[in-house]
Design brief:
The protein is α/β, with parallel strands linked by helices and 357 residues long. The protein contains eleven helices and ten strands. Strand 1 and strand 2 form a beta hairpin. Helix 10 packs across helix 11. Bound molecules: zinc ion.
Length: 357
């Protein structure tokens, strides 16, 4: 269903956006049901996906990542180690569900575009499923990320200029072939996988939600997925309210932060700033309106972090044994810049440090 004009479409291998050009959501996701949990991977929550393919998942045991303290002096701040996934980022949550769906819908070739982590996840799960995969990446994507894509057998197509240009090239490739657009931004099934982040946090905290969740925001995949998951728990009567969602952006590329400050409903595109947190450097997020809505509805806020703060947070995490990429460290930087007082805070560490460079 399109949230802009309510048009509805059947699930189809070729359908990835509304005829109006907007992104689609899934209608009526099944309620979270405590008595239907089984197993320990994210497929523990498969009853809540209600998608073709959930009975024959493409899986590598993803999910069920540790939730730990970072600093013994700050026991109220917990990190969820989502970089401990088969392809080393949280994107495996979405990729496992989306690639399972693609396979069930009869796809044989996938197309993706990504600055790296989503592409790697799609490429890894495509390899697992025996599907072909082409990934369009912006020039300047770290060499380690490109090497990972190629190792999974994906065809890597570098695109000059920005991430938006890579996305446009991917769309052109999808429109001119029979490929399935395995987009972590456009495909609503991807968010069905990401929502398991919220379910796991809730279970790991002894069936309660944290007060605040800090989330990295470029395209907002993790924030929207987490919002979706916590909303599901609230609908099921298992939490009284969705936690405050705090969106963290690199100040160098901050369309959501600017829209937040201006009290705007939709972000305006910003110039391409240079940031070490390339995973959240998105000038014009497709689901920007939804991101702002989710933050506001939760009583959360948007925090901008400087390059110095990101680099410093990355070093501090590494000094505590956690080697993550700058995009992941940006969230911890957001907590340190504006630390919540007397609140239980969860933040994801979403990508491994070896990805960068
Ligand atoms: Zn529409």
């Amino acid at each position: 269903v399109c949230p802009l004009d309510d048009r509805q479409y059947a699930l189809d291998r070729r359908r990835w956006r509304c005829d109006c050009g907007g992104p689609l959501d899934l209608t009526d996701p099944p309620p979270f049901a405590l008595d239907r949990l089984e197993g320990t991977s994210l497929w523990r929550y498969r009853h809540s996906f209600d998608l073709p393919g959930e009975d024959r998942p493409v899986t590598m045991g993803e999910g069920h990542t540790p939730l730990i303290t970072i600093d013994p002096d700050r026991p109220q701040i917990l990190a969820k180690l989502d970089f401990l996934m088969p392809t080393l980022s949280f994107k495996d949550r979405g990729a496992a569900v989306l690639v399972s769906l693609a396979l069930a819908l009869g796809a044989t070739q996938l197309v993706a575009d990504s600055s790296g982590n989503a592409g790697a996840a799609i490429a890894g799960y495509a390899a697992r499923a025996g599907l072909g995969c082409r990934v369009f990446v912006p020039a300047g994507t770290p060499a380690n990320k490109v090497a990972q894509l190629q190792a999974h057998g994906a065809v890597v197509v570098p695109v000059k200029d920005s991430r938006e240009d890579a996305a446009a090239a991917a769309v052109a490739a999808v429109e001119s072939s029979d490929s399935f657009y395995a987009s972590h931004v456009w495909q609503p099934a991807f968010f069905e996988g990401i929502k398991t982040f919220a379910y796991e946090v809730w279970e790991q905290l002894g069936r309660r939600a944290p007060d605040d969740v800090f989330l990295p925001v470029g395209n907002g995949t993790l924030l929207l997925g987490a919002a979706h998951g916590f909303a599901g728990l609230q609908v099921a009567g298992l939490i009284p309210a969705v936690p405050r969602l705090v969106a963290v952006q690199a100040s160098a590329c901050n369309p959501i932060e600017r829209a937040w400050r201006a009290d705007a409903a939709t972000p305006a595109p910003v110039g391409t700033g240079t940031t070490v947190a390339e995973g959240i450097a998105v000038r014009a997020p497709v689901r920007g309106r939804q991101i702002l809505q989710a933050v506001r509805a939760s009583g959360g806020r948007v925090v901008g972090v400087s390059e110095e703060a990101i680099v410093s947070a990355q070093a501090e995490l590494a000094a505590r044994g956690l080697y993550v990429e700058p995009t992941a460290a940006s969230v911890y930087a957001g907590v340190l810049v504006d630390p919540p007082v007397d609140r239980l805070v969860v933040l994801p560490l979403c990508g491994a440090g070896l990805k960068h460079g």
